[in-house]
């Protein structure tokens, strides 16, 4: 059996008090197992489903299916036709907090959008008047634009700027801001992918500092009574619970929202209502998610789309 690194052992002890859970967590990263594929229906489901599906979880929306192991949805003709989007079920868990947001929703802004799964989930769940997807890394734009076009997400626009630009140009404008934060990607190991140095303190601290900067800029966009969701696909508390604690200390007008249907996944590392799954839960490689609401009263700022036209990288689809 491959020996876990000292850094992984240390992390497992921080995450779990039970020796059994520590060992299961370590085993899930050293000996990765396959996870059930999932699809998000972008158009109406066909009368006869083309895949065999698992029994849905209590928090799973009706437009998502978790499929049996071995199904290959990405190779089905309906995929290319834009009927559904393939995603890790961990992403469904992280985005499930959005189901508690009341409709109607005006503007949804996804700050770190590529490849597009959380954007498409928000569009399908909330049917906003406008979805803006930002991706600061140029080489990731092509995949994002392709997925949004294929799935016929509309009305929607793609932008390519640092989060600080939007904090200045779009304050108090968005009913929902999604921050699927760049992270050390430790859950990649549970999918048999590589994440070099993902447990090293230097990498974790660098990532946490970047996350704090992004969430702080993103908070500026949230309209009074609007929502901010923060999520990662990593395990380190520095990138998850500790970012939330820092955020609430700097932005006391935000309060975390309890999501009752995710209660069993409450993080044991904080009293803040935030939620985790781990690979040994066998739902996906792992995710952290938390929903905040801006408690300020008042009216949000309207966005002058024409005035912001210089920021558009690509107008994808517009009704």
- Measured as a percent range, the helix fraction is 25-40%
Number of helical stretches of at least 4 residues: 9
- Give the CA-CA distance, first to last residue: 56 Å
Strand content: 15-25%
Biggest pleated-sheet summary: 9 strands, mixed
Radius of gyration equals: 19 Å
- What overall geometry do the principal axes of the alpha carbons give? globular
The count of strands amounts to 12
| Class by alpha and beta content | alpha/beta
Order of helices and strands: HHEEHEHEHEHEHEHEHEEEE
Which regions contain 5 or more consecutive residues with pLDDT less than 50?
Answer: none
Average pLDDT, all residues: 94
Detail the topology: elements first, then pairings.
Blueprint (H helix, E strand, L loop, with lengths): L5 H10 L3 H12 L7 E4 L22 E3 L10 H4 L3 E4 L1 H7 L11 E4 L6 H10 L3 E5 L6 H10 L5 E4 L3 H7 L4 E7 L20 H19 L2 E11 L8 H10 L3 E3 L18 E3 L9 E8 L17 E6 L2
Parallel strand pairs: 4-5, 4-7, 5-6, 7-8
Antiparallel strand pairs: 1-2, 1-3, 6-12, 8-11, 9-11, 10-11
Helix pairs in contact: 1-2, 7-8, 8-9
């Amino acid at each position: 059996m491959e020996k876990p690194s000292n850094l992984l052992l240390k992390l497992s002890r921080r995450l779990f008090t039970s020796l059994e859970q520590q060992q299961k967590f370590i085993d899930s990263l050293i000996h990765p197992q396959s996870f059930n594929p999932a699809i998000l229906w972008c158009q109406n489901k066909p009368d006869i489903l083309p895949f065999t599906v698992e029994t849905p979880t209590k928090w799973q929306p009706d437009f998502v299916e978790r499929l049996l192991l071995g199904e290959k949805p990405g190779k089905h003709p309906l995929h290319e036709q834009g009927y559904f989007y393939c995603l890790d079920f961990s992403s469904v868990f992280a985005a499930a907090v959005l189901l508690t947001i009341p409709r109607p929703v005006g503007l949804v802004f996804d700050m770190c959008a590529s490849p597009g799964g959380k954007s498409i989930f928000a569009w399908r769940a909330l049917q906003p008047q406008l979805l803006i997807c930002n991706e600061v890394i140029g080489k990731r734009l092509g995949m994002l634009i392709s997925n949004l076009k294929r799935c016929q997400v509309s009305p929607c626009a793609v932008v390519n700027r640092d989060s600080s630009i939007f904090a200045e140009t779009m304050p108090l404008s968005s009913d929902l801001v999604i921050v699927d934060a760049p992270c050390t990607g430790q859950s990649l190991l549970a999918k048999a992918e590589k994440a070099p140095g993902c447990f090293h303190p230097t990498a974790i601290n660098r990532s946490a500092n970047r996350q704090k900067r992004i969430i702080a800029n993103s908070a500026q966009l949230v309209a009074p009574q609007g929502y901010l969701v923060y999520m990662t696909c990593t395990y380190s508390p520095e990138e998850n619970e500790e970012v939330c604690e820092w955020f609430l200390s700097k932005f006391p007008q935000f309060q975390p929202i309890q999501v009752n249907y995710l209660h069993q996944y409450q993080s044991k590392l904080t009293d803040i209502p935030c939620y985790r799954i781990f690979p040994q839960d066998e739902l996906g490689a792992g995710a952290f998610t938390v929903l905040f609401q801006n408690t300020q009263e008042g009216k949000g700022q309207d966005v002058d789309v024409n005035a912001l036209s210089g920021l558009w990288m690509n107008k994808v689809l517009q009704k």
